[in-house]
Specification:
The complex is a heterodimer.
Chain A: H1 3-22, H2 26-44, H3 50-81, H4 94-105, H5 113-120, H6 123-143, H7 150-167, H8 174-191, H9 197-221, H10 237-251, H11 259-271, H12 275-300, H13 322-333, H14 338-344
Helix pairs in contact in A: 1-2, 1-6, 2-3, 2-6, 3-4, 3-5, 4-6, 5-8, 6-9, 7-8, 7-12, 8-9, 8-12, 9-10, 9-11, 9-13, 10-12, 11-12
Chain B: H1 2-20, H2 26-50, H3 59-85
Classes of the chains: A mainly alpha, B mainly alpha.
GO molecular function (chain A): NADH dehydrogenase (ubiquinone) activity
Pfam family, one (chain A): NADH_dehy_S2_C
Enzyme class (chain A): translocase
Chain lengths: ~350, ~100
């Protein structure tokens, strides 16, 4: 893509999210979400491949429908209560608004578009989809979180973690696995949203770091399936070693940073007398951990002399880019500074 | 007020049902999306007349501008789909399963 067009699209993406962040009127927030949808579609259909066009069509239909439902809920709220202020949403449509934002985010049971759309687009666009496109709807959800029934958010969170864990078990394509990983992590984020939004932001922050690490790793290694991951130890041994640990951090194992949000969320849910919910969330994290372990097995435990049926590639030297090193370091080592991270939010 | 709100809500829900239960053509889904946006346009226009406040009179136009952009995007995706998949039949959009 020409650098000028890429610049325009990326600036529009930034503009849309910033517009939604800074707005207190529902119409402006809706406009920011629409601009985000408009800006990412050309990035998706950059290569005119049938899978990319199909993914863009499915993404467009779901996001446009969700934005229309969001606008309908805000207009109903304006008719009902006479004002457009985002934080004063207290009409019966707050549930509908939450469901519309859940469609935009890909939270179960409205998650069916996410694995297919992730499969059809390139890994870099998938990174934008999973990280940047989640920020604006989550900002809206955080602003109305005190007006939503907490049972709705708990149910959505539980379903997301369980479906995210279960759905990823039968996948061999890396992008679909990362899509189900996104669904599961978003489930953790929204389950604590009503009780302590600061913890939801901590979880989002750590999740963004871990996901950016994994996506940049998969982009560098250029492997679309689990089979092709096995030959990457020869391309970059350091990446084979550290990305195994990064995957375990995604699974939420101590002493890596991924344990931090899970620990804090389970503690807060227990303080709110929701210990069975916390137990179910923790048990469903085991399902995700299984497919992360499968990925890390292929990545780093099939080094010589353990053989793998995949044919070896040419041993081209690849240099790890600096952002990947930075994100990898943050993925693995941030657990001891948990109080600092909490004080940031 | 409640009669108007009921009518507009019914119109929106009918369009949403048409969008979710689309059967054969992608174009019918896009048409239902446009129907939903039209019902929201009418709702916004009636809201500013209900309140006798002229300050928000231009909000239907803002909605119309964004929804026209979205409709253009949908149509361009329809053209791209018919170029890659041969038609706009929704049964042909099955390349991404597993």
């Amino acid at each position: 893509m020409s650098p000028y067009i890429l610049f325009v699209m990326l600036t529009s993406l930034g503009l849309g999210t910033t517009l939604t962040f800074t707005s207190s009127h529902w119409l402006l927030a809706w406009m920011g979400l629409e601009i985000n949808t408009l800006a990412i579609i050309p990035l998706m259909t950059n290569k005119h491949h049938p899978r990319a066009v199909e993914a863009a069509t499915k993404y467009f239909l779901t996001q446009a429908a969700a934005a229309a439902i969001l606008l309908f809920a805000s207009i109903y709220n304006a008719w009902y209560s006479g004002q457009w202020f985002i934080q004063d949403m207290s009409s019966p449509v707050s549930t509908l608004m939450t469901l519309a934002i859940a469609i935009k985010l890909g939270i179960a049971p409205m998650h069916f578009w996410l694995p297919e759309v992730m499969q059809g687009i390139s890994i870099n666009t998938g990174l934008i989809l999973v990280t940047w496109q989640k920020l604006a709807p989550l900002a809206l959800l955080m602003q109305i979180s005190h007006n939503i029934k907490p049972e709705l958010l708990i149910i959505l969170g539980l379903m997301s973690t369980i479906i995210g864990g279960w759905g990823g078990l039968n996948q061999t394509q890396i992008r679909k696995i990362m899509a189900y990983s996104s669904i599961a992590h978003l489930g953790w984020i929204i389950s604590i949203l009503h009780f302590m939004p600061a913890l939801a932001m901590v979880n989002l922050f750590i999740y963004l770091i871990m996901t950016i690490t994994m996506f940049m790793t998969f982009n560098l290694l250029n492997s679309p399936t689990i089979n092709t991951l096995a030959v990457n130890w020869s391309k970059s041994p350091i990446l084979a070693a550290t990305s195994a640990l990064a995957l375990l951090s995604l699974g939420g194992l101590p002493p890596l940073s991924g344990f931090m949000p899970k620990w804090l969320i389970i503690q807060e849910l227990t303080n709110q007398e929701l210990a069975p919910t916390a137990t179910l969330l923790a048990l469903s994290a085991l399902l995700s951990l299984f497919f992360y372990l499968r990925l890390s097995y292929s990545l780093s435990l099939t080094i010589m002399p353990n053989t793998h049926p995949q044919t070896l590639n040419w041993n081209m030297k690849i240099t790890t880019p600096l952002p990947l090193s930075l994100m990898m370091m943050m993925t693995l080592t941030m657990l001891p500074i948990t109080p600092t991270i909490i004080s940031l939010f | 007020m409640t009669h108007i709100l009921f009518t507009i809500s019914t119109a929106f829900m009918l369009g949403l049902t048409g969008l979710t239960f689309h059967r054969t053509h992608l174009l019918s889904a896009l048409l239902c999306l446009e129907g939903m946006m039209l019902s929201l346009f009418i709702a916004l226009a009636m809201w500013s007349t209900q309140n006798d406040m002229m300050i928000f009179s231009s909000s239907p136009l803002l909605l119309l501008a964004l929804s026209a952009c979205e409709a253009g995007l949908g149509l361009s995706l329809l053209v791209a789909t018919s170029r890659t998949h041969g038609s706009d039949h929704l049964q042909n959009l099955n390349l991404l399963q597993c």
